[in-house]
Structure formats: structure tokens, C-alpha cells
Amino acid sequence: MDTKDILKNKINAGRQRMTTQRLIILDELKKVTSHPSAYEVYRMVQRKIANVSFGTVYRNLRLLEDLGLVQELNYGKKFSRYDGNTDNHYHISCEKCERMDDIPISIWKRLNKNTSNATGYEVKAHRIEFYGLCPKCQGEKRG
Amino acid sequence: MDTKDILKNKINAGRQRMTTQRLIILDELKKVTSHPSAYEVYRMVQRKIANVSFGTVYRNLRLLEDLGLVQELNYGKKFSRYDGNTDNHYHISCEKCERMDDIPISIWKRLNKNTSNATGYEVKAHRIEFYGLCPKCQGEKRG
DNA sequence: GTATTTGCAAATACTTTGCAAAACC
DNA sequence: GGTTTTGCAAAGTATTTGCAAATAC
User: Of A1, A35, A130, B95, which residue is most buried, by most CB within 10 angstroms?
Assistant: First the structure.
């Protein structure tokens, strides 16, 4: 199933409509693993639709997140970054170059249960972010 | 060692100065476990210094964080919340009432090492936030 | 044809900053 | 006394929103 069908399926459940902007935003986001900011997504989309507006990008990123097609990564930084991969996974970011990579989540499946036992909360979800130096930056002088 | 001495010790290492505002901000933050926002800290400090300014609160929260006396919790929300407890611990927040509680970190000490092995990063730190319903909200209708 | 979505620009909301006066050491 | 810090207000920055025109179904 290609991106367009995935989007159509989600959209038809509500009363949203399929638009070029919407599709291209999702499409571009699914193409990369760089976890771009809203501005970077905007620049990517601009190459396809010259006069797209920033507001449209923001509105659609939010909509796509509500539809469960995109993940907003917004912890600890001034601005959010977005991820077209909604499989369960964690992220690790380099403190020097801000590169972000994915980590499969499977290793720590029991975190929610452990936390529920420890706190009495009904735990719905959790987010983890790791910080450090990526392999490339480890060899270089600290900036 | 009381809060004033803790602050003095940290401050004397640099060329900062001890001020009433600085001390009261730290003092108020260390008194509570509610993880207040900058605005809430401002209101708390206002009760002690009527004409304290918002800018001073922000500046000092940042300074106190740089000194390692305060933790800024800023992931996933529009505004940061602050924690006067800098012992290693995670947080869990209620999706309904926004209450935040602490979780001791000891259970998952090996996370950094596991992640380093999995990604090749030199892992310096990590942050986890859990989401769910606190015991009080579990029984109530969903809002 | 009618409701949704877009582009544009202005508005929001949290946080930061410039500056003269005040406080600290 | 000289440097840091404060209060105030204005600026900054990421994001959201109002509205008329355009688009989707």
C-alpha cells in the first residue's frame, strides 16, 4: 500500500479531504529518516509546491499526527522534529551535530508495566530520548 | 546543609552573586514536589517578594539549572516545568489533570549501556517520560 | 453546491534580552 | 567602586489562527 492509499484510508474515516499539500507533506516525511523540523519539512515540500505556506505545513503535520501517521518529537528542544515512522521506537540524538537516529523499542517492553507497579498510575505510554555523541562526532574535538 | 549554603557553594565557584531572588526561587522550588511551571514559580516567589519580575525568574531558573541545582522538564509540552530535586529520577504525568510524580531511576540503570551497544553512540544521558492516569483520575469519567 | 482546505498575515504564548537603576561583595 | 543582577518593557521565536479565495468531493 503506497502513501496515498494509507492517507486516503485514514482520511475517509473522518470528513477530511485529500489534498496535494497533505499528501506531499506525508510523502516527503516518509522518504527521510532525518527527523526534520517543521521548517525543514516546509522547505522539502516547497520543492514540490512552490507557493505552499508555512501554516499549511503546521496544520497538516498536526492533522497527520492526529491520524497516527506521523510522530512529533518535541522534548527538550526549542522546536519539534517530525518522524514519518510510527512504529514503536526510541530516538537518540547527538549533542554536537543534532543528528537523530532510531532505536528499536523491543528491548524494553516491560517499562510500562514496571512503572505502573511502582506508581499506581495506569500507564498509557512513555517516551525516551537518549543524548550523546554519534560515531562521527566521537572522534572530533568537542564543539 | 540548607538551601542557602548549597547555593553559596555553587555560586562561589563562578563570579555570580547571592541575591534574595535567587535564593527564594531555589527555596520555593525545593519546598514542593509539584513540578511547577515558570509562571507558577513566579507566583510562589511573588508571595515573598511582591515586585519580583518574570524575567528574573526565568533568568534564575536557567542559572540554577546550569549550576545543577534545578532540573528543567520541557519535553512534550508547550511550557517547561521545573524540579528542585536533581537526584536521578524519571517522571510520570497524568494526561487528565497534568499532575506529575517522580519515579526512582535505579530500576533501569543499564539503559545507557544497552543503547550504546545498539547504536554506536557514546551515550551521555537519557530522559524518560511516562504518560497515563494517576490513581485519582482512573476512577473518574474521562475528560 | 457546499464544506473543507489553502495562502497569507496577524496573533499567540512562552521565553529571552537591552538597559538604566539597584544590589552585592 | 566596580561588576553583577534586577525590574521593566520590548523583542524574539515557534506555532496557531482568522479570513477570503481556492479546492475537493
Answer: A130
